[in-house]
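User: quick one - fold this with acetoacetyl-coenzyme A bound?
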Amino acid sequence: MSIELTKSHKFFKKFLKEFAEKEILSLAKEIDETGNFPKKTFEKLSKLGLTGIHTPLEFGGAGADEIAKVIAVEELSKKCATTGAILSIHLLFGELIKKFGNENQKLKYLPMMSEGGKLGAFALTEPNAGSDAGSVKTIAISDGDHYVINGTKCFITGGGQAESLVLIASTDPSKQLKGLSAIIVDKGTPGFSIGKIEDKMGIRGSETVELIFENCRVPKSNLLGKEGEGFKISMIGLDGARIGVGAQALGIAEGALEEAIKYSKERSQFGKPISSFQGISWYIADMATQIEAAKHMIYYAARLKQEGKPHSKEAAMCKYFASETAKFVTDKALQIHGGYGYMKEYPLERMLRDAKITEIYEGTSEIHKIVIAKHVIG
Ligand code: CAA
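Assistant: Sure. C-alpha cells for the protein plus acetoacetyl-coenzyme A:
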C-alpha cells in the first residue's frame, strides 16, 4: 500500500502549509502565553472547510478523505500544536455523528459543526476512568422520554467552548462496560455546567475542562446508536482519533526538525556551522529517520481507515510511535539550540511541552502497547 500523495493531496498540503505559515504561526506564541482558546482561528478553519473536512457534502462538509484529514492536522500542528489539537478533537465529534448518528442527528449536527463554525467535543474521561475507560460512573437514568444525567467528566478538550458534545454515561450500571451509552448533550442544557479550567504544560489554548452534570435532562432522541453501545462507539471513535493524534505528533516533530536544521546552519561555533559537526548531523539524521517512519505509519493507518479496513492495531502503533518520536525530536531539537533552546524567545521549549501530551491523551503510550500486544499475541 503506497503512501504516495495524489496530485490533489499535494496541492492541498501546499495550500495548508502556506495558510499555516501566514495565519497560524504568528499566533502560536501568544496562544501558549495566554492559554486563550483561538476562536478567530477556529472560524477561519471553518471558512476553509477544515472543520467539516471529512463530512459528506450533503451535510455541509468538504467530503474529503482520511489522508486530507491527516494533512490538515499535520500542517497546522507544525506551526501551532494547539490549533492542530483543536481541529483533531473537533473532528472526532463529527466522525461519531457521521458513523453512528441517525438522519435527524446528522441533519442537525453535521452542518453546524462543518460550515457553521461550531465546535464539537467528546466526553469520556472521568477522575477515576482514565486508562480504564470502561469504569465510567456518570449515570443517565431513564425518565419518560428523557435521560437524567449526573456525574463529572474531566480533561475534556474544548468542553467549555463546544456547542455540543458526545457524552459517555451509564444507562445501566449493572452491565458495567456494556451498560455505557453515547448521548449528545448541547451547550446550555439546564444542569450542565463547566467546572475547573485546567492550567496545562502544553497545547495551552485548547481549553481542557471539567464538565459537571447535575440532574441534567436530555431528550432520549439524543442517544447515539443504541443503549449499551457507548464503549464500542468510544473505542471505534478513538481508533480514528488516534491517527489524528499521530498527525499532531508528526507535525510537531516536523516543525521542530525544520527549526533544528535552520539553526544548525546559522549557528557557528569553533569557526564553522554546527551542522557540520558529526554529532549534530547524527542527531538530525536520527530525527529525520524517525519522522519518516512515523509518517509512513500514520498515512498507512489513515489509508486503511479510508478503505474501510481494520485499523485498530495500526492506529495504536502510529499514535504510540509518532508521539514518542515527537518527544525525541523536540528534545534533540532543543538540545541542538543549546541555551537558546531553553529560552522562550525560541519555539523549541513550547514544542517540547506540546509534544508531551501526545504520549498521554486519547490513550497513553502504555495503553497503546496493551492494544498492540492484544492484536499481535492474540
Ligand atoms: N473497536 C471496537 N470494539 C472494541 C475496540 C475497538 N477498537 N476495543 C475494544 N472493543 C470492544 C471489545 O471487543 C469488547 O467487546 P466484547 O466484549 O463484545 O468482545 C469490549 O470493547 C471491551 O474490550 P476490552 O475488554 O478490551 O476493554 P478493556 O476494559 O480491557 O479496555 C482499553 C480496553 C484499550 C484499555 C480501553 O479502555 C482504552 O482504550 N483505554 C484508554 C482510554 C482513552 O483512550 N481515553 C482517552 C479519552 S479521550 C480524551 O482524552 C479526551 C480529550 O478531549 C482528548
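One thing worth noting: The beta strands are 120-123, 139-143, 146-157, 164-170, 180-186, 192-197, 208-219, 223-224, 268-269, 272-273.
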